[in-house]
User: Fold these one by one.
Assistant:
Number 1:
Amino acid sequence: MNDLPGARQADPRGNVRWRTSAIVLAACLAVCLVVAGLAWKREHDRVSAQERVALAHGLALHAAELRDADHSTARNLGLAAVKIHSDGQTRAGLIDTLAREHSSEFTLEASSEVALSGDGRIALTGHGDEVSVWDLTTWLDPKIVEKPSDRVAALKGHKENVGAVALSFDGRTVLTGDDDGTTIVWDLTDPAKPIRMAAVVNKRDAEYANSVEAVALSRDGRTAMIAGSDGDVTAWDLTDRSRPARLSMTAHASSIRDLGLSADGAIAVTVENKGTVTLWDLTAPSPPVKPADLALPAKSVAAAMSTDGRVVLVGNARQVGVWNLDDRSRPVNAAVFDVPLADMYDMALTFEGKTALLAGPSDSAILWDLSAPSRPARIAALKGYSQEINSVALSADGGIALTAGPGGVSLWNLKDLSEVVANLEYAACLGHTGAEISKADWARYAGSADWSDYGEEDWDTLAVCLIRPDST
């Protein structure tokens, strides 16, 4: 007998519905678990990334603090920071550390003015009532370990402090201007035997000497500009350097703070104490034509002109403006960017205006890339041996730089710096593949960060160049 009378038959459709519900429930549970797992992973990755960034920035900060006292450790920490997390902050710190390796303590004698010839071979440093002449050929030769400590000559003859110096592109003509209002023209054809060619004296009033505030020379040294504290700027023909001939004069409302002249002597830029920045066309008959004013939102204090006369920088305490002079009658403001200097003491530009060096009340001059004028980019901070940098100079190609202040003058050989910046990690490891961080230093500078996240747990030291890169 099969079924009892009245017994219910099992509903096959109910079993199917139950199984379907169970499958759907299991699928939903699986999806929820996957979603929760992904969310957990995202959060874990986010926290790990934050910890990695914080560690990298902390190591970069320690590297900056150690840059003077322990350069080797600073280099290792800076490279570790870039390997752990490469961003603008860590890369800038490592570039600054590596750039320091390209500097030399040139002279400990205080200097208020420096100048370089176009090829970077001849240097001038001014202190007190004289200017020292240096031949950098030996200094720039890496094969010569013992560098000369003596200057090759001194330009003497001023009665007061020299506050303005200019050197022609070929290094053969020099202008030195002093607080007594006298500008001396020198022949430096033989750097070891300078010849005083002539002297130009600014007009004076009954009480005060009209001190020389700024001087400039054209590329060939045949045109000179001299700015006095009374606001007068005069152009001079130095074709016969023994007999300077005045070409023209411009009058300003206040004393001149800075002055620039193009290679062809056709255009000049002046900065007054009141902050006015003016371009002057010197090709017109006397007096020169004033084609344009260049302005920044706040008072301008310094300016620089590229040798080719196509780029002008104008700076104040916080910002720098980049002006394009392809059409000299209509300057175009290509960019305005912030600078961390608190004030602007001096500026220098390469021949084509693609690199700028800015100085102020800091122990570092800031090197900027202006090859894309609308997007200025910080290259490196050149930390000198002085607590503040009053004067800077660049060779025509930007390969040589001088930074000067009360603590002395630093010489920078920057010819390979662009390659360092472009291949930062490679440059940092080149010749330093054995760079290591000990466990003691890791604990000191990395805190509680897990060593095994970046190297092998059983290693006694962390090989910096082999640190596992950030995979996020």
Number 2:
Amino acid sequence: MIELKNELKLKPQLILTPQLKLVLKVLQLNILDLHNFLLQEVQSNPFLELEYKDLPENNYIEESYFEEIKLKEEVNFEEELIEKRFYFGKEEPEEEWNWEKTLKAEEKLIDYLLWQINLKELTPLEKDIAYYIIGNLDDKGYLRISLEEIAKEFNVSLEKVEKIRNIIKFLDPVGVASLNLKECLLTQLEFIGYDKSSIPYILVEKHLEEIPKGIDYFKNLYGYNEKEIESALEVIKQLEPYPARNYFDVNTLYIEPDLIFYKEENEWKVEVVKEGPFIVRLNNYYKNFLKKKKDFGNNPRVKKFLKQKLKDAEDLLKALDSRYSNLYKVGEAILKYQKEFLEKGIKFLKPLTLKDVAEEVHLHESTISRIINQKYVQTPKGLFPLKFFFSIGYKSKEGEELSAKAIKDYIREIINGENPSKPLSDSAISKILKEKYGINIARRTVTKYREELQIPSIRERKISKNNRERGVFYD
């Protein structure tokens, strides 16, 4: 017979307290996300308030007067609480949501034009000329290379080049590969059915610079009536002066650094970014109100609510303090390892792992991962994600440690210097790395790094159809 009974057992178990959960949440926010999070918290907690720096009547407490709040301290609401301020990054105005933004096409103009040209019945030579023209378009969609240069490159007549360019001009977007604005607009007019005797065509061909002068100018010049001129100008306004506009536009990404690495008096230093348009601090009115027991009357729930909100506010300030101190320690550890990169360049980027930094700052690897996630650092060499400084490494024959990023840079350098007619195989690159730089890595590793760099294989790099399709492969 089964016997049922109760018994007590001691079992060690990790329990995440609400305060610890808040610390972990704040820790992984970048400065812009943190900024938005704090605005939400201020709206829901009466003990938190904002003080905007650009208001002249505000009096600010110097940073030297700040008293550190330790995570282990318990909040005593009966005692005078410490005012504490934190500075945060600049807020970006919130835009009204637009579903059309989520439907934006990512297709590039060159790929779209190549797809269209491949549907045309052209000879291999004519396609090569078309690929070459497409590969030399600028960001606006205009051809920025002379027709004579193209003819010389392929050893063909100017008429042959012009024939191919005219085919491209009438692809979508119409007017692409034009030599100037006038030709681009005339191509679009011709495409939509206006011949050389039409008013819009005449205005663009002969009076493009005078178009801004308006209806009266052309009415007196040609004797056209006002409606004809107005209609023609309206048609011209609808034309696209930059055919590639919609294909080179990208979604704006706002990035604000969480750390700054800078050199002062020949010494590298790290700074946690705290400056911003407002200060978050505890609200004096509610602190004083909470200490006056008579104000609560016979409603203890009001006092209980306020005590909880006060605790939440203090927990948030402690979490922010923890975030800044840990971010500073991690930044300092990264700077210690990567000073040579900041001074000499990518080839001096050392291998660095989460474990290395965790041991340096006495935190767990998962905590380091949270700290560096989606955070950026401003350096004299530009803006970098903190993850950039972490990579596996290898040793050269001299015993020097090299990061995977440094080896990728060597691979790119070797390929950029190769003979285009005789590109190097991955095995050959592996051999050069070993003989010239003392870096012993396998062919498959070279292949992996080359693909990560988005550099085509040996077959694709040969001077052929694919080479002309893509133009320059590597930056």
